[in-house]
Structure formats: structure tokens, C-alpha cells
Design a protein that fits this description.
Layout: H1 3-7, E1 11-14, E2 19-23, E3 45-48, H2 70-83, E4 89-94, H3 96-107, E5 112-118, H4 136-148, H5 150-162, H6 169-180, H7 183-195, E6 209-216, H8 222-231, E7 236-244, H9 248-251, H10 253-265
Parallel strand pairs: 2-3, 2-4, 4-5, 5-6, 6-7
Antiparallel strand pairs: 1-3
Helix pairs in contact: 2-3, 4-5, 4-7, 5-6
Family: Belongs to the AB hydrolase superfamily.
InterPro entries: AB_hydrolase_1, AB_hydrolase_fold
Protein name: AB hydrolase-1 domain-containing protein
Amino acid sequence: MGAIEAAHNVRVLGSGTTTVVLGHGFGTDQSVWKHMVPHLVDQYRVILYDNMGAGTTNPDYFDFDRYSTLEGYAYDLIAILEEFNVDKCIYVGHSLSSMTGAIASIFRPDLFHKLIMIAASPRFVNTVDYYGGFEQEEIDQLCDAKESNYKSWISGFAPLVVGGDMDSVAVQEFSRTLFNMRPDIALSVFRTIFTFDLRHFLARVTVPCHIVQSSKDLAVPVAVAEYLHQNLGGKSIVEVVATDGHLPQLSAPELTIPVLLRHIQHDIVDA
């Protein structure tokens, strides 16, 4: 097993001439795709991996400087694709990884056939002329709460983000993967996500983008999906799904997976 494969717990499943790569968001790991993978392996070669900093990775490998921007994650993704001789993949990225895929596609557009972006946002904080969903004071309060009592913070944060109560299987699953992260790493990744502003990158993304968005997502308003659609440099399409929460592939797989499969199977057709 190579160093990259081991560090990111890379798994290659299924077979097929087309490769689908699945990238997870903050607080989760590749297990977030457990409902989706069975629908892919008969037709596609599927690559799963864990972002550095996920609870399933070695915390000693987490470089706080490298992962203070999304470029660090993008370079990791490119290294994984190169290691496994991936050419023109369909990249399905959730949240953090949707924007990681966008940045990686700027550096290496040849590696991507298209991006499928779930709960994607180029900036989470509001400005005078942009509605990202959060005020800076709210982010500061979340960071303070996280720093003071990580376990207590998870019990409040997970239901809000997933869209359910603590008895929900999806909330319990998200709580589990969040709790597996080392608290200082979780705080660092959280700060990175909530301080980045990738709006100036969007025009340079020329790979086709399929934007899939929950109709009710605490972290990403529907307006953000439309903003992406208007500002990306290549073809794009938006589909708003009648789901509640930031992790619809985990909390509402019966609604979300058919939509994702359709976007995987069909390219954007020029009107």
C-alpha cells in the first residue's frame, strides 16, 4: 500500500470504464457514502477516501498550515487521482469537498469530467452584497463553544446541521464521526471552512458543475446554490431537493441518491 493510499484510507470498489470519486465534508469520513456506494459499484469504478483530519486518519499527519486553506485538500485530491491513474473522473463532493473539487479542477481540469457538488458554498459568512447564511459573530460564538466543551458542542451542533433530533440515526452517525476528530483539528478545520472566501475562484472553474442543494439547509441557503450557478466559469445546473439538512445523502438517502445517480449518469445538455 502506497503512502497516499494509507494516509487517506483510499478504497477502490467496483469496476467499469468510468471512475466516480466520492469526497466527504467536515465532521464526517467516507462512511457518509454508505447508502450510495451499493448503487454505484455494479456500473462504476468507485474511489473513496478520507480527508486528512477526519477521525479515521492519523492526526500526526495533519499539517495545520497546509490545511488552513482548501488548496491543501485540493493537492491531496490530485495526488490521489494521480496515484490511481484516474482520468476524467466524475467527482462527487460534499460541502468542504465540493469546493476542494472545484479548486482541484482549476489546477488540473484534465482530471475531471464533471463535478457534482452537494451543499456547496464558496463563502459561509454574509457580506454587504452576498448572503452566505452566517454573521461573523455567530461563527465566533460557535468556535468559542467548541473550544470550551467539544462534546457538549457536538450534541447541539449535530442536530442543527443534519436536521433532526439526537434520536435520529443520521444525527447519531454525524455525532460519532465528529467525536472521532481530535478537537484541536476539528476547530482548525472549522475555522478554515468558515473563513474562506472562494468567490474569486469561481470564474476559473470550467469543468461542468451539477449543484445539488437541500431545500432547507442551516449551513447553506438555497440562494448560495444560485450564486454558484451564476458565477461558475463553465456549464452548471442547479437542482434543489425537498430534503432537510446539510447531509442529505445520510439523512434522506431515499430522496437524495436517485437525484445524485441521475446527475452522475447524465451530463448537462445545452438548452
